[in-house]
Structures are given as structure tokens and as C-alpha cells.
Queue: 3 jobs
Job 1
Amino acid sequence: MCDKDGSHLENPFVQALPDGVHVRVSNHLSEPIGFLHEDAPRGTSFHVENFEPGNNTYACGAPTLGPYSPDPTGPGGSWGEPVSFTVIDPNGYYVRTTIRCPLAGLGYSGKMTTLRAGESLPQALRRDAEGLEPGDRVQVGGYPRAHPRREVAVWRKGAVVATFDYEYVSPSTWRRGGSTTCDSTGLAWK
């Protein structure tokens, strides 16, 4: 809940589902509030987010879009103390994709990818990226049914060495987004 006194939780434990963490936001303010990458209108709204399993924090924020907030931190800021909550994932839905390498490069494509009949995003990445090796494991990271964006990760020798983002356009069409790759891998969008 978000009100003039800040952020409040009904339950400090949340169970993950295949598409992420389901959150009900109760906004008791006279204007929209910022909730991660989108605004939550006055009243009750429902969101599905990609909070990782384990301990997380969140604070109500000023609107990210829309009019300037009278909040002293300004648009996109937050007020009050953050609240802590724990995401539990007993079914192991979430796949961690943290890259740990000395130097990582960023990339962006923006091109469209059309999935062939029966093709998955990891299979499409094998067409869309260069530098993949035969022993590389390619898998969707985060929550397996997250929507509208999915992160596809590349594991090499047991470590994540790259992530590639796809944004949903239609059931068979995805827009290639950003990529993060360890510099020494040669991995990049084609």
C-alpha cells in the first residue's frame, strides 16, 4: 500500500509463479505513483514483476510518467523508508542470469525475429547471435513465462557469459533488445 506516510506491506512473504511475482498495489494518494517501470493509478491495480527469489525492498515512488509530483524527490523518485519482503520460489521457476566477468560489453539490435513453427527463443538466439559455441547452454532466464520481455542467457563452462533480451510483439514475433556479454566471448547480435 502507498499513502502519504510511504510504503506498507500486507504480507512480507510472496510466492513466485511461472510468470513472476504478482503484486496488488493499493494507491491511496490523489495521483498515480511510480511502481518500478510503470505508473500505478489511484486505487487498486495489479502487476506482475520480476523480483528475484530472496530478500527484496521497494518504496513507493513519484510517477515515472505523467505530471510532476509535489513530492520533493521529483518524478521517478521515492519517499518514505523502503519495505522489505521475501520472494519464495519452492518450485524453482526463477533462473538466475547474473554475469560475472571482468569486462562486459553492452549491445542493442532492435531487429524483429520471427519464430519458426515449434521454435523456442533459445533456438532463435542460436540464429540471431554470433559467437555461440557447440557446448554453450542457451536458456530463458528469469521467470519462464515472464511477459512482455524475456531474457535468454548463454552459459559457457558453467557460468553465464551473456544475456540477450527479447520483447514480445505477437505469438511468433519478438523484437531483439539489449545484450550484455563478457568481452572475451565474441558473443553479439548478428
Job 2
Amino acid sequence: MVMQYSLIALGIALALPGLAAEEINMVDSATAALVSDDLRTLVVDPTTDHVLEPMLPYHLQGVLDSTTRNTVHTLGMIGLYNDATTLDSIVATLEETFAERSPILQSGGLTLTRDLTGLGFWEIHESTPGTYRFDLTDPIVTSASSYGVNHLVVIQPYALWDQLTAGYTADSDNDHLYNGGDFFVLKENTGPGVASDLSRYRSFLQALQAEYANIQYYEIGNEIDNAATGYGAAPLNYATLVASTRTALGDDVQLLNGGTTDINYTYWNSFFDAGGGDDIDVFNVHYNNEKTTVQSSFAQFEMILDNYN
């Protein structure tokens, strides 16, 4: 008897009771066939110390445990920067974790990484207007660069003081984002809403670029057409944000839209109508349900992209 298995990602052979006499023939799915040879031959000890989150090895929300994230959320970034003991402890945790993860990325031939709470989060760098801090992100860049790993920076255009200035109020539907989630660095569960002070936003990006001049790839928000981002019902505001980002970072970097969450064609038509496509180099699509609608959705997005050249 020959059993055939289609693998979604990397091949894993399992020894199951009762199957010892069977011949197991492992074959790739179309997606798995795209996995690089470096990854196929990579040997990683199957322990929690050596497991990397897919695409997010430097993602602070994934690196720090829930107790630490709750501490940061309670303190806020201003409070954290004023608490040297807690800050030093977190930095030491980051350095230790990245010292394990960066060599694994290099061994697997992975030269580009992405995070959601980290390099591009406005609040992390400018919790006080006009004062820039890189305490939590220097360990990322220092470790990654030592092993030839570059970054796709996800710009999270949220600073608490900017959100409060805009008058955004708390929305309990978004509490999961703040209470240990991707936005745990924002002390108050306010909004999120669209960036208010775009002049200060551009200054933040210029400071970030000056600090990490070798970074060439930026994604503007994450799944930005989702309601929880503050831009989900505001494609025109998002087009303005993208234009401000281009103005700040210049033409020598590659800009991606915050990946579409599925098939929100109306949103992206409005974005392109507002000229948003003039300022992005790559159109970014996210699929979170094993690409169940990928064929029809890609065809539709290709029509939209063709329509706007």
C-alpha cells in the first residue's frame, strides 16, 4: 500500500502506530515546492528555544512574554524609558533571544525579515514629541545585520500623544490589540485612528531612516483595510499617509501598501483613485485562510492594477 501526503510547508515524517509496514511517499504541494533548498536542508533542534515565528523572528509582541507585555502596557513607553531596571531587563531579553534566532535565519538562507511591533512603531521611537529613542530596536538591527539579515519595516503610524491629540476614544472591540497584542506599547486603548500630525509623522520617519540608513523596504501599516487599524474605512486618509511616507523617506526606498486582508476591492479602488498607487512600488496581498480565494482574488486585483497602470 502506498500512502501519499501533500505538504503545505516543510516536510515532516511521522512514525505512527500501525503504519510501520506501509510505504509513505511524501510529495510537495505547489506551495511547498517553492520552499528554498536552504530551508529544506536546515537542521533545527525541535525545542522551544529554536522555534521561530513565521516571518516574525524580531516581533516584540512575540518575543516578550505576556507578563512583560502587560508591564509595558501599564507603564507606557514614557514610563518604561524612565524605569531603567525594567528597560535594561527587556533589552537583555531581546539581545539573548536574537542571539539565538539570527544565526538560524542565516543558516536557512533567510535574508529578509518582517515584524509588526518593532522597528517601525511610531510610539516606540517617539513617545515624547521630538525625542527619539532606539533602545528596543537597536538590538534587532545589531543582531540581524551581524548575520546578513535585512528588514521589511512595518510602519505602525501610531503614537499615543498623537492619538490623544486627535481626540480618539477607547473602543473595547480593539482591546485585544492593546492588552498583550500588537499595540501593547500604547498605554491607553485609544482608537486606533488615522495619524493626526503628519508633519511630526514625517519627522519620525526621517529620524528612523537616519538611524537605520541601510533599510530599503517599508510596508505602510499592516492589513490596513481592516477596521481595527483606523484606516479600514478611510482609504483617502491612507492614500495621504502613503504620500507623506514617500515624501519623508524619498524615492530610493521600496514602499509596500499595508497588505490587503482579503478581497476589499472597493477600498483599493478608492485608494488608487486618490493617487495612492503613485507612491508604492509593490502591491501587497495577505491571505490568512490558506489562500482559499487566492485565484479569484488575484485575478480581480490584477484587473485593478492593470486599470490603474
Job 3
Amino acid sequence: AVGTFRQSRYAARIALPVPTMRRNAKVIAEIGFTLLFAVGRVVRYSCDSGHSSARSLALCIWSHLPPTLVSMKKVSERIRQLREEQGCSVRKLAALAEISPSALSQIEAGLNSPSVATLDKICGALGVPIVAIFEGEEPESMPLLMRAGERRKVYSAGSRATLEPLARGLPRKTMRPLLMVLEPGGECGEHPYSSAQGEEFAFLVQGMATFEQMDKLTELRAGDAIYYDPRQAHNWHNPNQAPATLLIVVAQ
């Protein structure tokens, strides 16, 4: 009661109601998470590549700030929403996704930034494509235009990768394109993983990457394309010193 009284007095002093203050605090927190991710990625990149000057570091930080970064917290909330809509318990979904219940609870609470492979397994267990956890419920119509500065992105610390869906809001679409940027040393999962259904096509836009499937490693360079069955265990790696940008289209 004392805390509520003090909060109310503070809200009255700055002429803002408590709910507004909470909303503002949430926005500030989202901005803080965005800056934290960007600075962390840039510092790690700078250490690996030898950039040391303040100007280079500042420019690098600016270039890494995404226009619309969806925090992993929102992705976690979306996973929990989909699970509850299907009437599935944490233990049951964890078993279907082949992860521990405690790991799923941490993911849903926003305490863990899972790898791309883990997100894909959770979505497979829920019967939805991976891009579904980045989408809101707002309806869209054809043709669907998504300008470069308006698309949503999410950063996976577990994979050192940024995912950027290129089409959202059309629940019945059969093709789900997305951009994936793998940082140096990044990989979709610690081990090869399988998707529940569909087919996938990947085009390497920039950099170099390694595709792994059936104990075979295939090196791709910019301009190379590969079509594969995601139901067979596979993985993406970037063992190189520069980021790799992949255009991936999932057909279901």
C-alpha cells in the first residue's frame, strides 16, 4: 500500500496517471533492450575484427540499430499465447518440442534467447511456421508491400542470428519468406534439427555460409541457391569472419 501511495504521489507530481507511466516504462525498456542488443553485437564484432576507434565503433553501432526490432520478450509472449490457445501444458509442449519444461518456461518468461533451431522445434510442436511467432494479429490484404524500414526483426542470441520475416498478416499464405543474417560464428542450432513439414529454398544474398544435411557439408557463396527437404535433419553455419545473409522461403 505504501508503494502504491508513493507511486501515485509521483504520478500526480508529473501530471501523468500510473497506467501511462507503466506504458512509458515499457517503451523505454524496449528501447533499452534494442540498444543493449546492438551495442553487444557491435562490441563483439569490433573485438573480432580489430575496430578500435571511437568513430568506427559509433558508426558500427548506428548501422546495427534495426528500424523495428521485435524483442525476444514479445516472441516469448506469442509462444505462450499460441500454447494456451491450443490448450497445451508447458510439460506437453516441451515434450513435443524435445526440450525440457524448465527451458520452455524460461523462454516463455523472456529469460532465455533461444536458438533458431529451438524456436523452429517449438513452432513445429505447435503446428505453426516459425514466422508465426513474429507476427501480430493485424489482418493484411494483397498485394502485401513491406518496405525495408517497416519490417520486423528479432535477434536470437542463441544462434547469433537476426530473423526478418518478409510477409506477415496473411494467415493462409503458402509461402513464408524471411531474411536470416548469421553473424560470424553463428549457427541455427548446436546440432542438426528437423522441421515438421514443408519444403525450403535458400538463396545466399551476401557472404558465405555452410549448409549441413545428412552428414554432408555444402559451402555456399553469394549468389548460390539450394532447395532442400527440411524434414531431414539440417543446419546452417557461418564459420567465416563476415556476416552471411540468407533469403529463405518456406513452402507449406
